[in-house]
Amino acid sequence: MAEADFKDKTIKCIDCGTEFVFTARDQAFYAEKGFTNEPKRCKACREARKAEKRNNTSK
User: Could you tell me how far CA 29 lies from the centroid of its own chain?
Assistant: First the structure.
C-alpha cells in the first residue's frame, strides 16, 4: 500500500492521555514492516518507556 492509501489518524495515548497523530507516512511504514497494531503511546511516552527498559536491563 502506498502512503496515499492512508489518512492521518488521531489516537489517544494510553499512558498520558495526550492525543497524537498517527500520520499516513507512519501508517505506510508500519504496513511495510508488517506491523498490524497501531501505536498506543505518544512519542514522549514511547521514549520514556524505552529509557525505563534500558535502565532496568543494565542493573
Answer: 11
